[in-house]
Automatic annotation (TrEMBL):
Source organism per UniProt: Lampropedia aestuarii
Names of the cofactor(s): FAD
Residue ranges annotated for the FAD-binding domain, each copy included: 7-367
Highest taxon, organism lineage: Bacteria
Pfam families in UniProt: FAD_binding_3
InterPro entries: FAD-bd, FAD-dep_Monooxygenase_BioMet, FAD/NAD-bd_sf
Any one Gene Ontology molecular-function term assigned to this protein's record: FAD binding
Protein name: FAD-dependent oxidoreductase
Keyword presence, Flavoprotein: yes
Keyword annotations: FAD, Flavoprotein, Monooxygenase, Oxidoreductase
Amino acid sequence: MAQAYSFLIAGGGIAGLSASIALSMQGHTIKLVERQAQFTEVGAGLQISPNAWRCLRAWGLEEQLKEYCSLPSALVARRLQTGRKLAQIPLGARCIERYGAPYATLQRADLHRILLERAEQSSLFTCATGFEAVSATVQEGMVVADVHGPLDWKGQAQADALIAADGVHSRLSAQLFAHAPAMPTGMTAFRGMVKQSALPEQLRSNTICAWLGKQMHVVTYPVLRGEWLNVVMIVQDRLLMRPSQRGPADMPATLQSLTRTSPIYQELHDVFLAIEAHGQSMQGTKWTEWPLSGRKPVRSPAELVADRAVLIGDAAHPMVPFLAQGAGMAIEDAEQLKNSLALHDKELQAALAHFAQMRAARCAKVQRQSLRNGKIFHMTGLPAFARDRAMQWFPGAAMDKSWLYAHGPQPVNMA
């Protein structure tokens, strides 16, 4: 009979909840601590590519996802300044046929709620909000974590292993692995959403569209069954003419500053104005501004696992969003951790080491390709001209990531 272990998971975001689901399915006991007093997943939309969807399907979540997601018909690249189409590849049925799963988009809050409800279905899962694991040590074959809670409460929690899923600014990553803190990338994301019914017919969309500009780009795609349009603008900080900040964004002033150096196609500009008039982001604001942080790509498996502690999600491999794989890689982490524990069911540390071996190279490649995409998206001058020609001539090579979508964690056959 497979050995059941106890896991302390630090962080209740997409990574932490995914790990809770995957491991409780195998009979492992989960204690999750989340620093926030209430779950308040921030951000607007996210993309779930086939590699992540297959994992979610294995956890029994496909029908719930279909209830809330959108299934874009195509991936399109356009010039930000003129709207000229550079390339297009179909998604929809072609994606399902080729990769065995759809390419979907949905609100981050919807995915988080689906994961939380699924985790709470297991009697092996318990969750404490308002508590944070601030440090940990291994003592006599157990992980002992120092936990801080409300009203200056301090105590300890024990488990067979610790999973640090506490995000890009992970305290446990720094304490257990001596990782350097995440640093500003020099880019800022602006996010907003608007009901498609509030847009003129010609501005409504059922595609994922990347609008490529000078040192900036915009991505638009449908969410919530196509009823809303999600908009993300990522800008090199030097264009802002001011320090970036986290919180509500003054989009009219931002656009006025940006259009001096990178004009925005009128139809897309009208979408921005519609969000200003009718849209929402979070916390009651129309737009939010979010400086992007990151670390260097993973260099070895030793950066992901140390003794009985493992890093997953942004705590392990933060990445810029130019491949839309932040959530996808966190979901893959959880599925691979489940598979590694099934393969080494009586050797916990061997299972964690196997997990790190299976994840390090793939996550590093996604991190590197994300950084590369950012440079390509923000090209100017002759490099941008060459990029546009390449995308027009070879759209599949430029936009279809079969190395990413066709692969990922594979189930372990224990027969």
